[in-house]
Amino acid sequence: MQSAAVLAVRFYPLPNTPRGYRSPPYPLGVLTRSLESDHAMHDEKTRKKLLTRLKRLEGQIGAIRRMVEEDRYCVDVLIQISAVQGALGKVGHLLLSQHIETCVRQAFEHGDEEARQTKIAELMDVFGRYAGIGK
Q1: Region of residue 129 (phi > 0: left; psi between -120 and 50: alpha; otherwise: beta)
Q2: 40-131 domain in CATH 1.20.58.1000?
């Protein structure tokens, strides 16, 4: 059986909302878990690349919001949405590549059969989500 601990979800006040509304640290539906490993998720170079891309995406999404607020031409907004989707896909590709090179490799080099099967199941789930299989 997989040794995964589901982390406790802490809720934070949402800005600009009535008192009492709370937000989890991740979007609803996102499962966070710890596999109790002793290695870092990313090396510093990859972490910087991911954060740089994500910050750029935040700016692009803010620009799209402003375009909608300003009632800009629909096709212009759609082009920007397409650019964001492409950039987000690159973030996912980088993250998946790093996961395979570190976490999956470690499970196959140093893990037992259960650890390998867990990583295979995780990869199949991720590939299914990216390909839209099982929806």
Answers
A1: alpha
A2: yes
| DSSP-derived 3-state class of residue 49 | helix
φ, ψ for residue 23 (rounded to 5)? Answer: -130, 135
Give the start-end residues of each E strand in 8-101: 12-13, 22-23, 33-34
Q: In this predicted model, what pLDDT tens digit does every residue of 49-102 receive, in sequence order?
A: 999 999 999 999 999 999 999 999 999 999 999 999 999 999 999 999 999 999
So where are the chain's domains? 40-131
Give the C-alpha distances (Å, rounded to integers) separating 104 from 37, 50, 107, 133.
12, 19, 5, 22
**pLDDT of res. 72:** 97
Structure tokens at 32: 């966070």
Radius of gyration of the chain (CA): 19
